[in-house]
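Loading example: each entry is read as two labelled lines plus one structure line.
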Amino acid sequence: MDYATSFGLVIPELVLTGAGLVLLMIAAFGGEKSSRLVSILAAVALGAAGALTLPALIDGAGGEATMAFYQQFSADAFASFAKLLVYIAAIACLMIAPGFFGRLRAMRPEYPVLVLFATLGMSIMVSATDLMTLYIGLELNSLAAYVLASFLRNDSRSAEAGLKYFVLGALASGILLYGMSLTYGFTGTTSFAGIRLAQEAGLSTGALFGLIFVLAGLAFKISAVPFHMWTPDVYEGAPTPVTTFFATAPKVAAIALTARVALDAFGSQADAWRQIVIFAALASIVVGALGAIGQNNLKRLLAYSSINNVGFILIGLAAATAEGASAMLFYLAIYVVMSLGSFVAVLMLRNGDGENLETFDDIAGLSSTRPGIAWCLLIMMFSLAGIPPLMGFFAKLEVFRAVVEAGLIPLAVIGIAASVIGAFYYIKFVKVMFFDEAVNRATKSASASQWAILVICAILISPLGWFLTRGLEMMTDTAAAGLFAGV
Amino acid sequence: MEGLPILSLMLLVPLVGAVLCMFVNASTARWVALIATLIDLLLGIALWASFDIGGAQWQFTERADLFAGFQYALGIDGIALMLIMLSVFLMPICILASWTSVTRRVGEYMAAFLVMELLMIGVFAAQDILLFYIFFEAGLIPMYLIIGIWGGADRIYASFKFFLYTLLGSVVMLIAMLWMVNEAGTGDIPTLLQYDFAPEAQTWLWLAFFASFAVKMPMWPVHTWLPAAHVQAPTAGSVILAGVLLKLGGYGFIRFSLPMFPEASAQFMWLVFGLSMIAVVVTSLIALVQHDMKKLIAYSSVAHMAIVTAGLFAFNAQGIEGAMVMMLSHGLVSGALFLCVGVIYDRLHTREIERYGGLAINMPRYAVFFLLFTMASIGLPGTSGFVAEFISLAGVYRASSTTTFVLTTGIILGAGYMLYLYRRVVFGEQKNADAAAMPDLNPREWLMLAPVAAAVLWMGVYPESFLAPMRGDIAAIEARIARAAPPSDADLVVGQPRAHEANYIEGEHDADHGAAEGEHAEAAGEEH
């Protein structure tokens, strides 16, 4: 393994690093005027990185050949799929931002730069095959994310969100580090392959503690119950484009990372972590559903909805099979589209003064005043509730199919029964928009790029998305095979 | 079947209509919807005409692979054909029923109805178990909107109840379906119909399907969403609910529960009979005390559906045939009764029985139609209701005479509440001036009610037209479930001849063996 090959494998990350550093300079010297240019260049860099990572997915790369830097980094098909999702989500979040920050005169070039660095961190996370790489990626992402959360520095809610995210995030990182040190102590290595090899004979109690702490730290990042408490506050307080970003890209990265840790590093001890994952999954579904019922703020509601969705994704992980991993990625892709769509729709609701509306009272009767947004939101909500023929149903179908094939019938039954609780607040959303008297508050028209993203998301989620599903399924299968190729 | 993919076409026409309706103004939307449903009706008639009775079990099959291992597979047998006919027959009538009464958001309303039509045809035509589920569940979205947007005062409660009830019922069925697909290696319904699942697994699968179909049916005690939904839905929504949506449960039993899990069905026969008996008596009694016309008819629907479930689980062809005729008949009759309610509701905007009275005086033609449908609901000979009740009860009698006895009381109670309703609304004094001033049927209402009346009489006089296409399929189901059929209590049992004459008194002829054991008594008999 020479360095040239290694550098060849990390080209997407190199592009992002280079672009990030250059754009930081442009931002520093160009000031606020440069924000548009920096945004466009950042999106181009993300697109380029995406194009560079695509071949690995198409070839179905996996195993030893994709390892870079002495097995610290893997550019396999699995990572490639996750990276593509992350990049696409990040580009979308760059596109919707100017319309939001422009009104507040807060569109600074640092926003795209921070998004770029956060994305770089996620890119490293999903490729990590060593605890050290994992931590570097995670922290790079988190530090950028803390700043993004408090990006509206004059807004106290935003500042509070950033601080809260930072304090709790640091705590979670500590837990994660502790788990990693225990794992290292009991296995003598930080490489995932080494950890798996060391545990093939059995899991000592100390190593089990390490596993639990690592999973707890990661559960915080994916906001799975019982480490979800920060999510509603941060999602509500952070500026909506940033919330959109949090709900999509980092979630993909953290879940992909969790999957790799569970299936690769601790892959030989699936029984040890399965019960933890099952608990987290069911608890997330139930808490996410119950917590959302009383919410009046749409962003908080969507935060609980994302907790709820993480539960379903974890159900796919609990299967601990290639089908389960594939189903998980399938769900993730559809989840990203649904989240993007619903947050963008919320972002587009503005009153005559251009202020953002974010409570149920504001969107009453939206279907008669703004039918376009209302119908798109209707599609998103029914899809999130998992009603066929929308794509959200197929996401759940794939996950539950994997679980049933793995023989975990009780998990499937409880999980799907709990999903009905979640349906309550999704249809409440529809009820407020369609059945209630119109208040006509959302009068301000939205920007073209926001419309474009919303409409694309709605089309992808609608039955028209069926045409793409076969391709998506092939990709997720390839990606999952890539993950299991090294195992 | 080669040639025109007629089933896909039947799905496509309402879809195109629905998309069009979303973008045109109110009056155009009405015409678009009417034309789309009429085209579908014509296609349905063509379907029936070219259906080969006694031919292959599955006809008009179409097949295309989709993603996620399931197929776009369509195809119908006689049972599905009849239910599709019912749907396409009722649809244009529903559109006519909402012609003037719906004034708000007409385009969206018509689109929702056309989507409903598409989904219902899809449910009956689906040959892949997951495709079936998709059509089955997707109906929640348009129905939720129909009740919620265009419904009555308490529509929000009703729409939530409808949605959550039916969703909770269905989701567990999805897991069961996934398990079956995994076990049998295919989601193809004709193949699954021949697959023998282990009896232990059948129990669980049956319960999972039961949860869904019992809610859709609806069976007592999970029927409570129905009166709420019916009362709040607009007239056409009620017609579709009663006419077709309630048939999904029965169709599910006939397509999945019975032939796929015969052993479990036999095991749970008494559960179904018990619930049916309770439903018939209890909901009929509830119907007697209603003040709201729609609620009364809704409860009568629950009672009629109970006869369907009992007939289905009688484990003989007669019971299943009767249940099928009952479903068709009930679809027509209760749909027509809701239309009748809708006619006077449009004039007076109340469903309160007390507000009406003496309608026979100012609306004689309406009174005749209402009378016909009332009689059909009671089951008067000559109407479809009689055929339905007679065949299904005859079938149930062969399984259990006690059950039949209880179900028959429901018929008497049914006559009670329907005639009582009719008397209060149509006969008697004209109590209110506004009710007395209502004009008789207009041509549009004639167009709605006359075809249904004709169909009711046709089915009552010559049910063979409807039974013939289904006979072969019902025989196939009967053959499939025969191995598990429980013993009947109504068959004649040939007894053992007694050893002695009737007036034989033990011990009389041989005092020594007075209180002897059996063998001694036998010996005594031989001596004798």
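Chain B touches chain A through 32 residues (CB under 8 Å).
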